[in-house]
Specification:
The chain has two helices and three strands. It is mainly alpha-helical. The model has no long low-confidence stretch (mean pLDDT 76).
C-alpha cells in the first residue's frame, strides 16, 4: 500500500494565513497612526508649556527689576478682545529659544 505524500499547502491554509496577515497589518497601521497623532499633540503641548515658562521668566525679571519692560517678547495687545496679552511672532519665539514651535497669527502670551 502506497501512502500519499502531501506536498505544498492547501488553499484553505493559504487563505487563513492571508487573513491573519491582513488583520495584523491593519492593527499595526492603526496603532501607528494613533501614535503619530498623540506625538503631534504632545509636541504642541510641550511647546506651549515652554513658551509659558519663558513668558513667566521674563515677567519675573521685569518685576524684580533685572529687565526693562521694553525687553518683553511680543507686541502688547491694548485693545480688542484680549487686552493685556502679548502677540508673539516667529522672531520672538526664536529669541526665546523655542525655534521648533511655529508661530501663527494668534500665538499669545499672558503676562
Amino acid at each position: 500500500m502506497k501512502i500519499k505524500e502531501n506536498k505544498g499547502i492547501t488553499l484553505v491554509t493559504l487563505v487563513i494565513t492571508v487573513i491573519i496577515l491582513v488583520i495584523l497589518a491593519g492593527t499595526g497601521v492603526s496603532i501607528g497612526l494613533n501614535l503619530t497623532a498623540t506625538a503631534k499633540y504632545t509636541n504642541v503641548q510641550t511647546y506651549m508649556l515652554l513658551i509659558q515658562q519663558k513668558c513667566e521668566y521674563v515677567e519675573n525679571e521685569v518685576v524684580i527689576g533685572e529687565m526693562e519692560e521694553d525687553d518683553r517678547y511680543g507686541e502688547l495687545q491694548e485693545d480688542g478682545d484680549l487686552p493685556g496679552w502679548y502677540k508673539l511672532s516667529q522672531g520672538d519665539l526664536n529669541e526665546m529659544g523655542v525655534k521648533g514651535a511655529k508661530a501663527k497669527d494668534r500665538l499669545l502670551c499672558k503676562l
